[in-house]
Amino acid sequence: MALTLYVDTARWRAHHKHVLEQFPGIVPVCKGNGYGFGHERLAEETTRFGSEILAVGTTYEAARIKDWFGGDLLVLTPFRRGEEPVPLPDRVIRSVSSLDGVHGLVGARVVIEVMSSMKRHGVSERDLPQLMSAIEDVRLEGFAIHLPLDRTDGTDAVEEVIGWMDRLRAARLPLHTMFVSHLKATELARLQQQFPQTRFRARIGTQLWLGDHEATEYRGSVLDVTRVVKGDRFGYRQQRAAADGYLVVVAGGTSHGVGLEAPKALHGMMPRAKGVARAGLATVNRNLSPFVWAGKQRWFAEPPHMQVSILFVPSADAPEPHVGEELVAHLRHTTTQFDRIVDR
Q1: Measuring CA to CA, which residue among 255, 243, 231 is closest to residue 298?
Q2: DSSP result, 66-114
Q3: What confidence tens digit (pLDDT) does each residue in 255-300 have?
Q4: Residue 195 phi/psi, 5° resolution?
Q5: Minimum mean pLDDT among 85-89, 227-231, 234-238, 274-278: which range?
Q6: Within the chain, where are the H helices?
Q7: Closest by alpha carbon to 182, among 17, 69, 27, 12?
Q8: DSSP secondary-structure letter at 12?
């Protein structure tokens, strides 16, 4: 009995093919928990569709994935002096976002990140005059720019990249390769047309692995079902049942990521109102679970346990679940750990 990730493999791979066609020279990204699939699986898929490079989040991820992927590994987290040394092969490329970072990686393969409107990290325009001499001591693989997802001020992502291309060119820095993030295919084509001597490579993770929502599905197995009547006490905190129904024990708890949620950026009155409503219900121990039964997301009977969740299903509006059945679970891939993955 398990929390299972089911993958419609043919459909999932057809989506990969579609994205690869849209973004020639794509750099697949495999970081965190491997977008819910795991590092080993995504390394295998990247090898299968023929990419010679794979981007990872950290040096620790690179150390784990190097035995599963034989091509170049691009570490996205910038190098910092004093970081814990991790033994890595020469095919690993380090990102750097400062002059000091470049000076600290003598002889290494590097990609230099420039500061975008994200304002997260990157070299600034004032650093460019010193970069020419600094890059003589490294093997420069190209420059990179990480762009925001939303542009509420109406600015143009392409124009932001063009601005940096002009600055780098004015500083007489080599522009053979530019790694970009969060550009549409049409925007990438515009840049490639305007700068034919530069190879633009899109670093893509979410859109590649999770872009077709219908290709994957999480399901949790029902482990136990107990009938209760209104007023019965149950669980760790001995709460009372609010109505007649069933306590359904289902595979999937906090160790799987069930009940964990990353903060969301809310735009508009309706999403904000829903957020306030959810917060209000939580104060009276009413929390909606990700598990679906009889067409509805069901409420947690109590906070999820480490490996299982207990749901309350009112007998008035739903049939009794049975042990061995599976409940669909609406879970976020990047925060979920499955027990098993099944291709179908």
Answers
A1: 243
A2: TTT--SEEEE-SPP-TTPPP----TTEEEEE-SHHHHHTTTT-EEEEEE
A3: 999 987 656 554 555 553 444 334 333 333 569 999 999 999 999 9
A4: -125, 75
A5: 274-278
A6: 9-22, 39-48, 59-65, 99-103, 128-134, 157-170, 185-194, 206-210, 269-282
A7: 27
A8: H
Distance CA 193, CA 208 (A): 23
Helix (H) or strand (E) holding 199: strand 199-204
Q: Using the CB atoms, write b or e for 25-37: b if 16+ within 10 Å.
A: bbbbbbbbbbbbb
- CA within 13 Å, CB half, 263: 1
Q: What is the CA radius of gyration of the chain?
A: 24
Paired tokens of 301: 């009977």
The per-residue pLDDT for range 124-147, each reduced to its tens digit, is 999 999 999 999 999 999 999 999
> Mean of the pLDDT values across residues 292-319?
96
Q: In Å, what is the CA distance from 296 to each residue of 6, 17, 147, 325?
A: 20, 34, 38, 16
CA-CA-CA-CA dihedral for 172, 178, 183, 187, to nearest 10: 60
User: What's the CA gap between 156 and 310, in Å, rounded?
Assistant: 48
Question: Which letter does DSSP use for residue 125 in this model?
Answer: G
96 φ, ψ to 5°? -130, 150
On whether the CB atoms of residues 291 and 311 are closer than 8 A, the answer is: yes
Among 92-101, 192-201, 235-244, where is mean pLDDT lowest?
Answer: 235-244
Check: CB of residue 291 under 8 Å from CB of residue 327. Answer: yes
Measured between alpha carbons, how far is 92 from 106 in angstroms, rounded to an integer?
14
The whole-angstrom separation of Cα 162 and Cα 183 is: 13
